[in-house]
């Protein structure tokens, strides 16, 4: 079946600033849509009180497991599809998306079931008090139903990025999240559903987005049957991304658990800071999405020089963009926390973490850009090892020391600083070596 008229049929392998921007800007909207909705959701729930805000912090942290699997689906599929697209085989690139969608559906249904069964125990494990745990569990039981749609959307984003089509995902993701952003305040306040309304709005956006990506896949190809051998190869080749993601989850789950032990105001402030961090991270990741697609296509076509040029350009772009984000964050230090909650205790805790947030952003911009380069190159084994070492030697010791010595949120965010700087040093070292420049249709 022929591709849509606005979709490229052959890779464009000139890494000009215009080409990178043409892929990155639509991807920016897609990446920013979900965390922007989460920020809206956090602001809506935050005005219900500090306890509902803490409940969403706990429930949202658990739901980040689904986002973790979604990242695996999207990034793993992008790299494989981009290499096949670069080798001139668009049909094979789309086929990677078909098999990734079957995998996404299976994993999503499993996560929805686990969320319904384990919501209570997980919330009690992470929450610092019974009231917060009960509220978080109620939110989580509903929100988990959105996992299949979330993962289907991730798989759809992956294969579309691989064939250098970032415009269709833009309209799908934007439409679903705009609908949810409208539903959330309506269901929480006029409908009187409170936290339940927030969870329903999440499920609505994720289910709609996943359904629309399925429709796009069906329009692209009729070869929709599952092929277990390809699915198994995707799982095996994605194991390093999975392990890397597990290290991230261990870090952020531990950070939320420690923050919750410092009180409701502390975990509320941590939720605000962490969601702003994730928002900045995913927005800055737009150039990394372009890197995944262009690096994968260049190496699939056997052009190592082009891949190196893409790496240089996106690293520079990521660093410059992150400095801009840091300047905006510094300017909004006294204003932004008030968007999420009127509670002065939460504001006081937010002031503790804000300098860390601002100072780390420029380093994070380079880290995210180089992550995209190496994922596109298929060099995820190195990313896995670097992330594990950074977590074990930096983040986790720092935050649990913070808990043991009662250092508060400053200690938690010092751990995030060690984690970011360790990855920065390792990625720059790898970037300067030739080891990641392996050519071929599939690594």
Automatic annotation (TrEMBL):
InterPro entries: DinF-like (IPR044644), MATE_fam (IPR002528), MdtK-like (IPR048279). Keywords: Cell membrane, Membrane, Transmembrane, Transmembrane helix, Transport. CDD domains: MATE_DinF_like (cd13136). Pfam families: MatE. GO terms for cellular component: plasma membrane. It is a multi-pass membrane protein. It comes from the Bacteria. Its main location: membrane. The chain crosses the membrane at residues 20-40, 52-75, 100-119, 139-159, 171-193, 199-220, 241-264, 276-302, 314-340, 352-370, 382-405, 411-429. It is found in: Cell membrane. GO terms for molecular function: antiporter activity; xenobiotic transmembrane transporter activity. PANTHER family: PROTEIN DETOXIFICATION 44, CHLOROPLASTIC (PTHR42893:SF46), PROTEIN DETOXIFICATION 44, CHLOROPLASTIC-RELATED (PTHR42893). Belongs to the multi antimicrobial extrusion (MATE) (TC 2.A.66.1) family. This is Putative efflux protein, MATE family. It comes from Actinoplanes philippinensis.
């Amino acid at each position: 079946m022929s591709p849509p008229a606005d979709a490229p049929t052959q890779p464009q392998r000139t890494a000009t600033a215009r080409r990178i921007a043409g892929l990155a800007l639509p991807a920016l909207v897609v990446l920013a849509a979900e965390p922007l909705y989460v920020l809206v959701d956090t602001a809506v729930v935050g005005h219900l009180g500090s306890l509902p805000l803490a409940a969403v912090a706990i429930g949202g942290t658990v739901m980040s497991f689904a986002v973790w699997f979604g990242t695996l689906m999207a990034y793993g599929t992008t790299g494989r599809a981009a290499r096949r697209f670069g080798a001139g085989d668009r049909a094979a690139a789309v086929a990677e998306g078909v098999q990734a969608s079957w995998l996404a559906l299976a994993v999503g249904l499993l996560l929805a079931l686990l969320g319904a069964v384990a919501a209570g125990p997980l919330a009690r494990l992470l929450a610092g008090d019974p009231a917060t745990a009960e509220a978080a569990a109620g939110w989580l039981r509903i929100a988990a139903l959105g996992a299949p749609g979330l993962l289907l959307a991730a798989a759809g984003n992956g294969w579309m990025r691989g064939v250098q089509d970032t415009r269709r995902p833009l309209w799908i993701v934007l439409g679903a999240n705009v609908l949810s952003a409208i539903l959330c305040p309506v269901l929480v306040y006029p409908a009187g559903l409170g936290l339940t309304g927030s969870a329903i709005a999440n499920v609505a956006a994720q289910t709609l987005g996943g359904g629309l990506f399925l429709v796009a896949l069906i329009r692209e190809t009729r070869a929709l049957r599952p092929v277990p051998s390809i699915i198994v190869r995707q799982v095996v080749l994605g194991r390093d991304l999975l392990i890397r993601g597990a290290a991230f989850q261990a870090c952020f789950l531990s950070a939320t658990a420690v923050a919750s032990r410092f009180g409701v105001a502390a975990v509320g402030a941590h939720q605000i800071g962490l969601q702003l961090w994730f928002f900045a991270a995913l927005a800055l990741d737009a150039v990394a999405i372009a890197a995944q697609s262009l690096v994968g296509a260049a190496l699939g076509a056997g052009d190592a020089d082009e891949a190196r040029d893409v790496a240089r350009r996106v690293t520079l772009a990521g660093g410059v963009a992150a400095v801009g984000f840091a300047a905006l964050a510094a300017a909004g230090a006294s204003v932004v926390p008030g968007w999420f909650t009127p509670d002065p205790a939460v504001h006081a805790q937010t002031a503790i973490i804000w300098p860390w947030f601002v100072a780390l952003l420029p380093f994070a911009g380079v880290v995210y850009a180089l992550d995209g380069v190496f994922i596109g190159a298929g060099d995820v084994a190195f990313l896995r090892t670097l992330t594990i070492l950074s977590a074990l030697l930096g983040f986790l010791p720092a935050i649990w020391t913070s808990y043991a010595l009662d250092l508060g949120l400053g200690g938690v965010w010092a751990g995030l600083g060690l984690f970011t700087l360790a990855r920065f040093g390792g990625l720059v070292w790898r970037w300067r070596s030739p080891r990641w420049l392996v050519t071929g249709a599939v690594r």
